[in-house]
Amino acid sequence: MENWITRLFDIRYPIIQAGMIWCSGWKLAAAVSNAGGLGLIGSASMNPEILEEHIRKCRAATNKPFGVNVPLMFSYTEEIMKVLIREKIKIVFTSAGNPSLWTPRLKEEGMTVVHVVASLKSARKCAESGVDAIVAEGFEAGGHNGREETTTMTLIPLIRKSVSLPLIAAGGIATGRSMLAAFALGAEGVQMGTRFVMTEESSAHPGFKKRILESKDGDTTLMIKKLAPVRLLRNRFSEAIGQMEAKGASAGELAEFLGKGRAMRGMFEGDLEEGELEIGQVSALLDVIRPAGAVVEEIMKEFNEAKNELTAL
Q1: N or C end of the chain: smaller count of CB under 10 Å?
Q2: For residue 250, with 0-12 CB atoms within 10 Å meaning exposed, 13-18 middle and 19 or more buried, which class applies?
Q3: For the chain, what is the HEC assignment?
């Protein structure tokens, strides 16, 4: 399959594995890239030294393109960017911040820059900043999310109508059929997080993966909106946060209760009740853990089958 996204990244399939905190190290990124998609190393859970190690191990495990996801909200972003420049990374996905802060500098280094947005306003800012492509992430997505709570079904055509850049859909997409739906709305590629958490190569804790397998519709909720909205699986921690929000807790009180390392505690170390379990709504659809390469092939097979079914209509 060839289109705008496959040409931009020099990949076989327009499938991007999201750079997820505590879940997407070099093993997952290399496996997705080897299967024909674009694997991303998630730098949010790594200090500069660990990121450098993951980049080098990924290079040893694949000769295909891969990239690094960098949330711009963290204080050590500049150090992370220095690693990317030093390691001559070719593809960078930025998120959770202003794309104009780093896009010009990264493009000076010859990098392809993609930014994740949750609103039309942010997409327009991306175009002004000179990014090469946009990930439009709907409200269904796991992890940190947009305050606007715009669904993928609404966000993709809204941005496609107003912005001419290559467009990657994210949020609630985990199958070939949902990929085809995103293409019908105007996307040329898809980014999947939750689906790739549920792979053998994902660094998510086995207990977290098991909890996802057991999840049903309605088991995730968008919370902590006074700080940074994040979609979580329900557990004792999320219930406590919900009670605090219902009582009108301030951003400072929520931040104090959240503390540090809550996501690591839940997703990486396996504390399923007091940890932060970031995952998307589509978790309710997933019932098996497979190798990442098999997931990519399954998505493309289903995409083509669904496309043929619709053509027959």
Answers
A1: C
A2: exposed
A3: CCCHHHHHHCCCCCEEECCCCCCCCHHHHHHHHHCCCEEEEEHHHCCHHHHHHHHHHHHHHCCCCEEEEEECCCCCHHHHHHHHHHCCCCEEEEECCCHHHCHHHHHHCCCEEEEEECCHHHHHHHHHHCCCEEEEECCCCCEECCCCCCCHHHHHHHHHHHCCCCEEEECCCCCHHHHHHHHHHCCCEEEECHHHHCECCCCCCHHHHHHHHHCCCCCEEEECCCCCCEEEECCHHHHHHHHHHHCCCCHHHHHHHHCCCHHHHHHHCCCCCCCCCECCHHHHHCCCCECHHHHHHHHHHHHHHHHHHHHHC
> What is the residue extent of each domain of the chain?
12-203+286-312, 206-282
Q: What is the pLDDT of residues 54-99, one digit of tens each?
A: 999 999 999 999 999 999 887 789 999 999 999 999 999 998 888 9
Q: What's the CA angle centered on 226, arms 149 and 22, to 5 degrees? A: 75
- What is the tens place of the pLDDT at every residue in 173-223? 999 999 999 999 999 999 999 999 999 999 999 999 999 999 999 999 998
Give percent above pLDDT 70 in the chain: 100
Q: 12-203+286-312: what fold?
A: TIM Barrel (3.20.20)
Confidence of residue 33 (pLDDT cuts 50, 70, 90): very high
Beta bridge partners of 91: 112
Q: Supply the Cα-derived Rg of the chain in whole angstroms.
A: 18
Average pLDDT taken over every residue of the chain? 94
Tokens 């990519």 locate to 296
